[in-house]
Design brief:
Keywords: DNA-binding, Membrane, Phosphoprotein, Transcription, Transcription regulation, Transmembrane, Transmembrane helix. The chain is α/β, with parallel strands linked by helices. Helix content is about 50%, strand content about 15%. Helix 2 crosses helix 5 and helix 8 runs parallel beside helix 9.
Length: about 600
């Protein structure tokens, strides 16, 4: 058997019989334990256990500290995000509030600038005020764009743009400002055209921010360079002056960050470069500060062609519809337009009213309810309305107008400080024809009004003078288009009846005679009888085009019982006799510009 470790005594004595032969001898024997049971081993075990316990405690403590740090960091991030969002909301709210008074400053300044001022010093003062008003407008626009980018609501309109020409125009606009600040701005560009698919306004904002930044901090010289690569173009803006430290180059594109420069006052809110970077990213491009250079150099690189971008060629519809008397200038007082201005801000209402009254007759209302009362008691050609109003807002007013058969033809322009994409989409949904943001140029507003009204006048003239120009080619809302097609069908169904008149047509349409008269008058500037006669003549032109009938028979087919009277009416309406019309059509000469009609039909998608 194996003895356990320990100290043993081995005794030995020799005996013979009952007598001892010798004395007892003893031997001490020590059996050592195996090494893993030795004292040293147990000491090591104890030390290891202590280390494990201490290590576990330290690990647990460190883990808790790390969790606490992460929570603290997360809290700081949330706090920073909350602070960032509060800053954006604060500045955005200020921008919205500033837009209305800014309009009241910008409008009169524009009017004064257009006057012939003889005093050079006064002209200079006015120019400075206009320039700084535009700068303030630009800053408010940047703040609103910045909010849209954060909310992923900024839409880009990509088109093919000559970057060489665009850059030259931007630099030219800044040359006067640089000169007034006694600084030199130079452009070094390529001679060839550099075409790229970009959002023109976004690129303008990026470069304007870079040049404004250079203007503030450059000592004397700023150089702008354009270089074309194989698949991208690069713009470098280099300025002298104190160099931006390399250690802060990664932060200068962060929102609200400003470089601390003792020799320069800290102006601005610190979003210009951040906005520039965001806009560059939306182009799949980059912008950075090249710290390797001796001077401060900002480098912008944008792809020439971005995959998936479809170039849109949105031409103004009014250019495609008709070409009547282009040499004759169109002014509002030629036609006596009457406008309804709906605005709850008295100062804004008074200012716009004074300017509009130079060309138009203007009725005013402070809210949608007052506006509807005026619309139902007066003849109004166009409505200009704010959106945010008490009692009834602009959206509800628009909805009421477009759902009323007697009012639905009246175009509506929203004039508002709300410039977010949702407001614009809602305006289209409710049926508004145009959307003008505050602060606005009064000349732009006036031209927008004239464009809408005069385009409708041209459409009416084209409908009356051109045999194949139909209601479907006109810019009507869906309700008016359906109504007029219904009216025309009623006339065509009764076209052979020479006694068919207004009373009968009103009965079939379930309308009062006065309502029918007013609707046709406002849409076509014709009485119902004249409109019936016009539809008969248009139908006669269709029969002549078909070439199946004699002209002598066609007049009876459209309910006109005198061939000579029919010929006289046709000549007066379309500028040629039925026989001349037949000859020219049969000889292959196109009387109607078919491409024009196609353009108008293509424009129907904007309704």
């Amino acid at each position: 058997a194996t003895l356990p470790p320990g100290k043993y005594t081995f005794r030995v004595q020799a005996t013979h019989g009952s007598k001892s032969e010798s004395s007892t001898r003893s031997l001490s024997i020590i059996i050592l334990p195996p090494w893993w049971q030795s004292i040293i081993a147990y000491i090591v075990y104890t030390v290891c256990i202590i280390l494990i316990v201490v290590g576990t405690i330290l690990w647990y403590k460190r883990r808790k500290e790390k969790q606490l740090e992460e929570r603290q960091k997360l809290f700081e991030i949330e706090k920073e995000k909350e602070l960032y969002e509060s800053k954006v909301d604060f500045f955005t709210e200020i921008a919205h509030e500033v837009r209305t008074p800014l309009t009241l400053i910008n409008g009169p300044l524009e009017a004064i600038e257009e006057m012939e001022i003889q005093e050079p010093k006064m002209k200079k003062y006015i120019s400075v005020m206009v320039q700084n008003t535009k700068r303030l407008l630009e800053l408010t626009g940047q703040l609103l764009d910045f909010q849209k980018i954060g909310a992923n609501k900024l839409t880009m309109k990509f088109e093919s743009v000559d970057i060489t020409e665009l850059l030259a125009g931007i630099v030219a606009r800044f040359e006067v400002t640089f000169s007034l600040n006694r600084k030199e701005l130079q452009l070094k560009s390529t001679d060839e055209q550099v075409w790229a698919a970009v959002d023109k306004e976004a690129i303008t904002k990026i470069l304007s921010n870079l040049l404004n930044n250079a203007l503030k901090y450059a000592s004397q010289n700023v150089l702008v360079e354009l270089e074309k690569g194989e698949d991208s173009f690069t713009i470098r803006v280099t300025s002298d002056g104190n160099k931006i430290p390399a250690e802060v180059s990664q932060y200068i594109f962060e929102p609200f960050y400003q470089v601390d420069r003792k020799e320069k006052p800290r102006n601005g809110v610190g979003i210009g470069l951040s906005l520039a970077r965001s806009l560059a990213s939306l182009h799949k491009g980059t912008i950075y500060l090249d710290t390797r250079q001796e001077n401060n150099m900002f480098v912008l690189t944008i792809p020439l062609n971005m995959e998936g971008i479809k170039q849109e060629n949105n031409k103004a519809i009014q250019k495609d519809i008709v070409e009547l008397d282009e040499h004759t200038p169109v002014t509002a007082d030629m036609y006596g337009y009457t406008l309804l201005l709906v605005e709850d801000n008295e100062s804004m209402l008074t200012f716009i009213l004074e300017r509009l009254q130079e060309n138009f007759t203007v009725e005013t209302a402070m809210n949608g309810v007052e506006a509807l009362e005026i619309l139902r008691s007066s003849h109004i050609d166009l409505i200009i309305s704010d959106i945010m109003m008490p009692v009834m807002d602009g959206y509800q007013l628009c909805k009421e107008v477009k759902s009323d058969m007697e009012l639905s033809h009246i175009p509506i322009i929203f004039l508002t400080a709300k410039n977010d994409i949702d407001s614009k989409i809602n305006s289209l949904k409710y049926g508004a024809e145009a959307y003008v943001e505050k602060p606005f140029s009064f000349n732009y507003l006036k031209e927008q009004v004239l464009s809408l009204l005069d385009n409708r006048r041209r459409e009416r003239e084209a409908f009356a003078k051109r045999p194949f120009f139909s209601v479907n080619n006109m810019q009507m809302n869906k309700a008016d288009e359906e109504f007029m097609n219904k009216v025309i069908k009623v006339i065509e169904d009764n076209i052979t009846d020479d006694n068919f008149g207004v009373e009968r047509m009103a009965d079939i349409l379930c309308m009062s005679r006065s309502s029918l008269l007013r609707k046709i008058k406002t849409l076509f500037n014709l009485s119902p009888l004249d409109f019936i006669r016009l539809i008969k003549l248009k139908k006669a032109a269709e029969f002549i085009q078909e070439g199946k009938y004699r002209i002598g028979d066609i007049c009876y087919m459209v309910g006109i019982n005198s061939p000579s009277y029919f010929s006289k009416l046709f000549l007066k309406q379309f500028g040629m006799t039925p026989k001349d019309f037949e000859k020219q059509y049969q000889s292959g000469k196109q009387i109607i510009i078919t491409q024009e009609i196609k353009n108008v039909e293509a424009g129907e998608g904007t309704k």
